[in-house]
Amino acid sequence: MILSKFVDELPIPPILKPRWKDQFYTYYEVNMTEFSQSLHSQLNNSTVWGYENGYPGPTIEVESGEKVFIKWINNLPDKHLFPIDYTVHGAHWDVPDVRTVVHVHGACVEWESDGYPEAWFTKGFKQVGPYFRKQIYRYDNCNHACTLWYHDHTIGITRLNIYAGLAGFYLIRENRERSLNLPSGKYEIPLMIQDKTFNEDGSLYYPKQPEKPIPELETSIIPEFIGDTILVNGKVWPYLEVEPRKYRFRLLNASNTRFYRIKLDSGQFMYQIATDGGLLEYPIGIREIMLAPAERADVIIDFTNLEGKNIIMTNDAPAPFPGGDKPDPLTVGQVMQFRVTLPLSSVDTSTIPAYMVPVPKIKEQSVTRIRYLTLNDTMDQYGREWMLLDNKPWDAPISENPKLGTTEIWYLINVTDDSHPIHLHLIDFQILDRRNFDVDKFNKEKVIEYTGPAMPPEPQERGWKDTVRANPKQVTRIIMEFGPFTGLYIWHCHILEHEDYEMMRPYIVIR
Ligand SMILES: [Cu+2]
User: Per its UniProt record, what CDD domains does this chain match (predicted)?
Assistant: First the structure.
């Protein structure tokens, strides 16, 4: 069944209202529930999970530096929407099927409120994971203005919980950004891009087995999930009516595995103004933008003088990336449509500024520690692909223990055939470079022999990042200062099927 494109309007998630707000702090409560929602007008309603009865969840908007407390409440049923593989770490028979914990992706936050995967909790906090510390999370929002997102992070079932709908936007605002006069208000729209597959009855489909099934297991984790349908803000191939003026879109790839290479079929430029961690030094005009799972990019699209035009946002990234099939241009090669049909309601006085904010380069001379970390590919006892970080599974002793306030360079040495979006919690980093190397020689002798020059990050990546594409057969170098908190955090691949199956490691910031 192929659903018609551009028949449903793009939904825009509501802004969450706090339960309490005064000059000292803000308090929210967010309920997780199961409900049915229309994801396309030709489909029966789908049963989904969401925050505050919405998929995506409501957008949380805070000021930089605002003290925010959030009570995340699990009100989900006892039965999971999708089949669980009980062989996966942390998801064995000894724990309840339905567990949740919320991570604000990109947040500068104390570790007890970061949503550690083993800090999960069930309905009414009846059962909690070994690292559960508190019911009410505290966010200091020590980030500059940026597009963050909150999503589930439960050990062993993150892929299923996010696929069920547990994701939403978390925006940090700041006067420094307001003074730039970017398109705002109804001209600033978040776009959460995901892929899914539906059953005939409208329910969401998630495979029980990989393409080559594992006969010993009733349910097995799959190496990647590639959906045949694209959704934006929880709607299949939506359209958005726009005025002939500038808009700011906050693009987020919230897919399990799929990468997107976004273009406009009008061939026009998009002006990227921000990366994962906030504003760039100056806007860059680009015709295409790559987004791996969890990456964000804020872009300004100018519809001025395009009255009456329909513009399609397209995607031509192979899936899996980069070695997989090119997307079918009639289905997953399309994302959404803009219709320039609304009258201009007032003169567009917003601007694309020539300069935005300083993004000072972290100095390599300040580095006190270099870590060489492989991304590797092995096989488990069932013959399944097993992706690891530094050749270690999740529960091996902690080996990355940066000191508070120090700067490190991490060499991400990818010997696999996939591009892995590597995400570090707590901090933003900068990408130094990527460089091809001799994988066979590295596997045999454990020495890095470069086979090409160091390539600087793409212009679209020259800002603060929390997720980086580590490409196959390349060394990707990132640099970061660890702080302002100490404690237990994690780093992992953001392909959800990888992170659930061991491509995730704890790290600790020590004093
Ligand atoms: Cu991966």
Answer: CuRO_1_BOD_CotA_like, CuRO_2_CotA_like, CuRO_3_CotA_like
